Amino acid sequence: MSTTSAGSSSIVRDIERVSPELVQAAGKFQAAILADVNGRRGAVHGRVKPLNPKMKVAGPAVTVEVRQGDNLAIHAALAVAKPGDVIVVDGKGDVSCALIGEIMATQAQASGIAGIIIDAAVRDSHELAAGDYPVFSAGLNPCGPTKSVAGTVNMPISLGGTTVRPGDLVVGDADGVVIIAKEDVERIVPLAQQKVDSEAARIAAIKKGDGRAKWLEKALQDAGMLGEGEAL
């Protein structure tokens, strides 16, 4: 049965994207920094990881939902995605067969697509991990997919427990993937820079011998681990 009603389309071609300028500004930060300043929200389940820890990607999401084991909708996304986009696939965490391999990744790279993130399995992992094109997945499997079941392109999805809407910012690196709502990116960028500066200052202080966090004793008291006025 189709996932859409008769006469309706499950492929949305025109979406509002986070701007290239904001992608560039946010993409210089670690996914961890962005997740922290986003209220510790937006991080995708840790099963979704880069095939090579050196891989990093940032760009607006082209969202795809598929039935487990079928990649028909991913082929549609490859056809409608624009240069700089990141294809983000809700594969339900299923790793019983691969949804993409070297051929589809090569097509995506040749089309200018910034990267592919799939909550499912991929194959040809040796070739993909040895290359410079960012591919993130939930696992590996040599079995290939079917191409016969309707999915959706550029509709809201859930990626590893995190909501992703078309055009939202996607940033992935060695730690995993974070999603930032497109309307929040402009606000998040200066907060990310402030956190980077704060962490750099803290690391410098630690290296000079100031090893104890100044907030620790109050936090322990608030949690009931230390009594009022008690110190470590």
From TrEMBL:
Keywords: Magnesium, Metal-binding
Names of required cofactors: a divalent metal cation; Mg(2+)
Molecular function via GO: metal ion binding
Binding site for Mg(2+): 124
Positions that bind substrate: 101-104, 123
Magnesium listed as a keyword: yes
One Pfam family linked to the record: RraA-like
Transmembrane annotation, as ranges: none
SUPFAM superfamilies referenced in this protein's UniProt entry, alphabetically: RraA-like
Keyword tRNA processing included in the entry's annotation: no
Domain of life where this protein originates: Bacteria
UniProt cross-references to InterPro entries, sorted A to Z: RraA/RraA-like, RraA/RraA-like_sf
Protein's recorded name: Putative 4-hydroxy-4-methyl-2-oxoglutarate aldolase
Species in which this protein is naturally found: Caballeronia grimmiae
